[in-house]
Specification:
The chain has two domains: 167 residues, 3-Layer(aba) Sandwich (Rossmann fold), CATH 3.40.50.280; 119 residues, no CATH class. The strands form three sheets. Strands 2-3-1-4-5-6 form a six-stranded mixed beta sheet, sandwiched between helices. A four-stranded mixed beta sheet has the order 9-11-7-12, with helices on one face. Helix 5 links the parallel strand 5 and strand 6. Helix content is 33%, strand content 18%. Helix 1 crosses helix 6. It is of the alpha/beta class. The chain is built from eleven helices and twelve strands.
Length: 350
């Protein structure tokens, strides 16, 4: 019987059973055997592999102390002498996705071991690490845990056995942007002509080279000065009036709102709060001006360095925002800002 592969599973503090956001600063630790979703991972791996240990680290600690956290995590992983490392899935959690991508790429580059993770395609960890490690697509919430584990486990076993990964559309991982030469029975010229004929006849075809799509945005003309300019405050940090009267969602927000601030010199935590669900918003709830610096703009306005602060705050939540919806929000806000006579925008995020 073939020897079982030794697998290390990386999780954040929530899935690792340590705690929620209150434990996001937890330093790396290791537990024997599978933990939380690792139990399902073990079931999907079957008898071919054994999840010998789980390395857990808080999302905030990892993202705020990346170099130190990576060194600690790699030390814990190496001590277990694994054949393979699996991280996540991270779904749409941004900090978790970045950590999973960083761990897998470091395992591959520094420990020379195969590694794989999974996350929602719009997770920021995808763009940061897709060229350095294998990332399988996952849903945006843990409701997809069963489905993604069923796909993640066989691909992980393939890597653990030293088998080469096939094309992204065959093995199911997100394209890495890397190309590899392969032999084909037909020449490139023949395939090109066949593709052209398929296109002319409106038959389905698949391009062999997927070109990246980039937005082209023409910059606005520079302001000659701020002394006569109207400046607007716009934020995706989730700052809203206390009670969140318009029920802006903490993630995948379906709306943006415009709130009057012309009567305010500063933003009081008694009147304003933060509903963003993608970061520890406690600091912003303590002082909303950490995300919306109205007090500083008022000082500049009083000093004559800024002509006028628009008497409205434009706000929404950018957490896991679908690209098309974000574009729509941008168009709608831009039209409203133009109607308000705004010359420049101070856009704050998280």
């Amino acid at each position: 019987m073939a020897t079982q592969l030794r697998v290390i599973h990386y999780l954040n503090q929530f899935f690792g059973g340590i705690g929620g956001e209150d434990k996001a600063d937890a330093r790396p630790t290791v537990k024997t055997g599978p933990v939380g979703p690792g139990v399902l991972l073990q079931k999907c791996l079957g008898e071919s592999a054994d999840v010998v240990a789980t390395v857990i680290c808080g999302d905030s600690y990892f993202n705020e102390h990346t170099d130190d956290a990576l060194a600690e995590v790699l030390k814990l992983i190496a001590a277990q002498k694994p054949d393979l490392v699996v991280a996540g899935p991270a779904f749409a959690a941004g900090r978790y996705g970045v950590a999973c991508g960083a761990v897998c790429s470091a395992v591959k580059e520094r420990l020379n071991l195969p590694a794989v993770t999974a996350m929602f395609p719009e997770n920021p960890g995808v763009d940061l690490y897709r060229r350095r490690t294998y990332i399988l697509p996952a849903g945006n919430t843990a409701m997809d845990m069963g489905g993604v584990m069923a796909r993640l486990a066989p691909f992980a076993l393939k890597l653990g056995r030293g088998e080469p990964a096939g094309p992204a559309d065959v093995d199911g991982y997100l394209p890495t942007g890397m190309r590899r030469n392969e032999f084909d029975a037909k020449s490139g010229a023949e395939r090109m002509v066949e593709m052209l004929l398929d296109r002319l006849q409106q038959r389905p075809f698949t391009s062999e080279v997927q070109l990246p799509q980039y937005d082209q945005v023409s910059p606005a003309a520079a302001l000659s000065g701020l002394e006569n300019a109207t400046i607007a405050l716009v934020t995706t940090s989730g700052v809203v009036p206390q009670g969140n009267p318009d029920r802006i969602e903490s993630w995948r927000a379906t709306k943006w709102m415009k709130y009057p601030i012309g009567h305010l010199q500063e933003m009081s935590p008694a009147e304003w709060t933060c509903v963003h669900g993608g970061y520890d918003n406690g600091y912003v709830r303590q002082d909303p001006q950490r995300a919306v610096p109205l007090d500083i703009l008022r000082e500049l306005e009083q000093q004559g360095k800024v002509g006028r602060v628009l008497p409205y705050l434009y706000t929404t939540v950018g957490n896991v925002q679908p690209v098309e919806r974000a574009r729509r929000f941008g168009r709608e806000m831009a039209l409203a800002l133009k109607q308000d006579g705004v010359h420049a925008v101070l856009l704050t995020a998280t």
